[in-house]
Amino acid sequence: MAATLVRDAFGKAGNDLYALLGVGKDAEPSQIRRGYHRSALKLHPDKNPGDSAATLKFQALGAVHRILSDATRRKEYDRTGRCPEEDESEGHFGEDRWREYFSKAFHTVTCDSINTFAEHYVGSEEERQDVLGAYTKGGGDLGAVLDSVLLCTEADAPRFEAIVEAAIAASEVPRLPRLARSAGNSRTAKKRKCKADGEAAQAEKARAALGQRAIGGDLGDLAAAIQARKQAREAAAGEGGFLAQLEQKYAATSCRARTSGKDVKKRPAVAR
Length: 272
Description:
Structural class: mainly alpha
Number of helices: 13
Domain J: 16-81
Radius of gyration: 20 Å
Pfam families: DnaJ, HTH_DNAJC9
Number of domains: 2
Shape: elongated
Organism: Polarella glacialis (Dinoflagellate)
Number of strands: 0
GO molecular function: heat shock protein binding
Low-confidence stretches: 88-96, 210-272
Protein name: J domain-containing protein
């Protein structure tokens, strides 16, 4: 049942479903949907390959969204403070049903949300604040920033460093000791890239296990949309930009390794 799943995934934090999505109790449906997408992306299997705790939380977020996006269930939750039980007529959410729901949630976030979210998020003030928050929390470690910020890769390191340096110059954040050790350190960068490549391989295996191979259906539509906008986006983001990465990831007819770091153009720093 939803209550058990949420409790097992989040513990006491699961008592407030709205907080799990980062929204207020008066949130509009569109805000709930965006909050779910944002929270789900943080815990997405691509971001946390092999992390069973993150997978459980990703599944639980699906249950939370299922409740808060339904007017009747949301009203009951607001009244009682408890997750509504599944209606018997709809079928109990046993292991098979949750596996099916998880698969659909994975597909929905992958196909319908990432591209739209990225176009609004990458280079935005929201992303900048996330970068600075991760920088502060990580004591200045650029690797910690790359591990925390949504939808980023090793190629974003120079851009994030530029964001941090600009914020330091504007006295928004202090210069923290770990920045100098992590920024521009080729050995550290190489280690991060090796880790990223390993995680990418694990994520591909997980995606294959879920039957989410990049063929046909919505993924084919996504590939077509990426191709149609590729030239315009590359002019602004470089060939190593996010849409190009998506094309490599989802539009390929066979599994391919990530583009090597030496072939990826640096994305220009966002002017602030």
